[in-house]
Amino acid sequence: MPRRALITGVTGQDGSYLAELLLDKGYEVQGTTRNVDSESTRGLHRLVSERGGTVRLHESSLQNDDEVTLLLDEVAPDEIYHLAAQSHVGLSFEKPLETLDANAGVTLRLLEAVRTLQGRGRDIRFFHAASSEMFGRPTESPQTERTPFVPRNPYATSKVCAFHLVANYRETHGLYACSGILFNHESPRRPERFVTRKVTLAAARIAAGLQETLTLGNLDIGRDWGFAGDYVDAMWRMLHQEQPTDLVIATGRWHSLEEFLERAFRRVNLDWRDHVRQDPALMRPAESGRLVGDASLARERLGWQPTTTFEELVDRMVDADMQWVVGRS
Ligand code: GDR
């Protein structure tokens, strides 16, 4: 019998890479999405069918206890990868309560359902996608599993809550449950509401003469940016440790947004300074500090390390967007 995985938020960037990885490993993959009739759902079906696979979809926002219990009963997964979230930090300032429920509330509902099923003799492993945003204004650099959390926005606070709930259920109820403290991870599949994809798509459109300027918020920031495909591999490895442990997943390299702009625009022979404008309306009420992770423990425990450099990542994203833009014009 193949192992069966349930991926919440399967139509997102990470969900699609993880579905591909698990299908390649011979898993049966099922997933949840809020809307089965969306462009991202069609995109997922295209991607997995190109590999000769299928993903069975369940439409659910996971915001109702009974629905979650019924779903887990029906799917009967061996492994759950909980990726569904309100994942946009900026939006969390405007929708704090929705963010708290979507991130902490849903995680708790899933943990409760897993605990109930475990009581009936079922064995389910649970992965939760936590975030480097939990470190907020970090007290040390680089950040490790021992660095205190100082969340700076409702999104980060909701992830801290979910992180501790996962640890509680592991310690109190003996669940095989763990959180990946994931630093930023990007790809050509990243939606445009995140800054990296906004930049690479704009660079491609400007190069093709379809757009003149790119309007951004705060330029005085940077991140530890990795490739999403590497991070889903870490998720799978985390559910195959002997003991479930929370781990930092990061590249250990910090780059400024200006470096990202420089590389992306150079790739299409442009100077970003000629095209980028700033709009204070796009700035966040509070920014996190210098987030850069130390994934030594993940390397030691999982044998995991990133395979993609910052430069390769930016080039890959710009090249994919150039292809996409040219293909549509
Ligand atoms: P982040 O990613 O908040 O790190 O969260 P995002 O790409 O949204 O922002 C990164 C930084 O860029 C600045 N910025 C802008 N951001 C956006 N989105 N749009 C802009 O126009 C813009 N201009 C400047 C932001 O102020 C910020 O400092 C991501 C998400 O995937 C989370 O879900 C995840 O947990 C963390 O990464 C790790």
Give structural notes.
With 329 residues, the protein is an alpha/beta fold. The protein has a domain at 4-186 and 225-249: NAD(P)-binding Rossmann-like Domain (Rossmann fold, 3-Layer(aba) Sandwich). Helices cover 44% and strands 16% of the residues. The chain is built from 11 helices and 13 strands. The strands form 4 sheets. The chain has a 7-stranded parallel β-sheet, with helices on both faces. Strand 2, helix 2 and strand 3 form a beta-alpha-beta unit. The radius of gyration is 20 Å and the shape is globular. The mean pLDDT is 96. The structure holds guanosine-5'-diphosphate-rhamnose. Residues 87, 89-90, 131-133, 182-184, 193-196, 198, 216-218, 221, 223, 257, 282, 284, 287 line the site of guanosine-5'-diphosphate-rhamnose.
Kindly report the name of the CATH homologous superfamily of the domain at 4-186 and 225-249: NAD(P)-binding Rossmann-like Domain
Radius of gyration: 20 Å
How big a fraction of the residues is strand?
Answer: 15-25%
Structural class of the secondary structure composition?
A: alpha/beta
Count up the helices: 11
CATH-derived architecture of the domain at 4-186 and 225-249: 3-Layer(aba) Sandwich
Mean pLDDT: 96
Distance N to C terminus: 47 Å
* Main beta sheet: 7 strands, parallel
Oligomer: single chain
Q: Outline the low-pLDDT stretches.
A: none
The best one-word shape is globular
CATH class of the domain at 4-186 and 225-249: Alpha Beta
Ligand set: guanosine-5'-diphosphate-rhamnose
Helix content: 40-55%
Instruction: Report the CATH topology name of the domain at 4-186 and 225-249.
Output: Rossmann fold
